[in-house]
Amino acid sequence: MKLVESIKESGGFLNRYTHESASCRCSMTFSVFLPPQATDGRVPALYWLSGLTCTDDNFRVKAGAQRYAAEHGIALIIPDTSPRGANVPDVPERYDLGQGAGFYVNATQEPWSTHYHLYDYVTAELPALVEQHLPLIPGVRSISGHSMGGHGALICALKNPGMYRSVSAFAPICHPTECGWGQGCFSAYLGDDKSLWEAYDATCLIRVGASIPEIFIDQGTADEFLLEGQLLPESLAAACQQAEVPLTLRMQAGYDHSYHFIATFIGEHIAWHAQAMA
Ligand SMILES: N[C@@H](CCC(=O)N[C@@H](CS)C(=O)NCC(=O)O)C(=O)O
């Protein structure tokens, strides 16, 4: 992997890397915040998955997370949301399909199946890469994300028991098989057989017994996509209650879907993950 930018922040370094991804078969860019504690030792890592339209840039410039990561001595690993490049299929007129909308699945359908393997990328290729090259404690990971990335964080944790010490999410797409965003991407990436979609749906995974110690979610009540029925936290809450999965779902009065909402609560999420990785 190649370091393309390094900026000192909060006593640590906000770095950007590019590498040739075997999973996505293209060059991928990701950001990493290394806290000051990484100068003389190895640190735990919190993976952050962003939402529709995002690159690795949105979280690093808008969430204000680096200050808290420095305080707690944890690294932030911030991947892109899809494969990229002129040879990678896209639908430029759509923000919710193609580049910027990888949905953290392994696509099986043409033309997406060559490059759109974000699930393998995030759960296997990227952790192996960063743990080999950066001062991270191998295997000590947590995961969080926003919207499409909140969905990504939930399914990565639910499908890989023990891989992450903790999982949280901001305004996650909780039941993608039942919302417009999810149905649009899953039909394109995974095909028409809806039973295959359920393997990438947090609510469905909990219904069929996926084991997870605890889930922590913040959701704004004035979130335009909550009101539009894209997020469906009530479906996840019902599944968790039925399966006796501990869920802390905080409905935050008046907050919208934006990074202003994330910036307000990211400190609490980072403190919670840091404790789980201590
Ligand atoms: N119409 C919106 C829909 C997409 C959207 O709200 N994306 C959220 C995640 S689902 C986001 O993080 N946008 C980028 C940002 O706020 O920096 C847009 O094009 O930005």
Automatic annotation (TrEMBL):
<comment type="similarity">
    <text>Belongs to the esterase D family.</text>
</comment>
<keyword id="KW-0378">Hydrolase</keyword>
<protein>
    <recommendedName>
        <fullName>S-formylglutathione hydrolase</fullName>
        <ecNumber>3.1.2.12</ecNumber>
    </recommendedName>
</protein>
<dbReference type="GO" id="GO:0052689">
    <property type="term" value="F:carboxylic ester hydrolase activity"/>
</dbReference>
<dbReference type="InterPro" id="IPR029058">
    <property type="entry name" value="AB_hydrolase_fold"/>
</dbReference>
<comment type="function">
    <text>Serine hydrolase involved in the detoxification of formaldehyde.</text>
</comment>
<keyword id="KW-0719">Serine esterase</keyword>
<dbReference type="InterPro" id="IPR000801">
    <property type="entry name" value="Esterase-like"/>
</dbReference>
<dbReference type="GO" id="GO:0005829">
    <property type="term" value="C:cytosol"/>
</dbReference>
<feature type="active site" description="Charge relay system">
    <location>
        <position position="147"/>
    </location>
</feature>
<feature type="active site" description="Charge relay system">
    <location>
        <position position="257"/>
    </location>
</feature>
<dbReference type="GO" id="GO:0046294">
    <property type="term" value="P:formaldehyde catabolic process"/>
</dbReference>
<dbReference type="GO" id="GO:0018738">
    <property type="term" value="F:S-formylglutathione hydrolase activity"/>
</dbReference>
<dbReference type="InterPro" id="IPR014186">
    <property type="entry name" value="S-formylglutathione_hydrol"/>
</dbReference>
<dbReference type="Pfam" id="PF00756">
    <property type="entry name" value="Esterase"/>
</dbReference>
<feature type="active site" description="Charge relay system">
    <location>
        <position position="223"/>
    </location>
</feature>
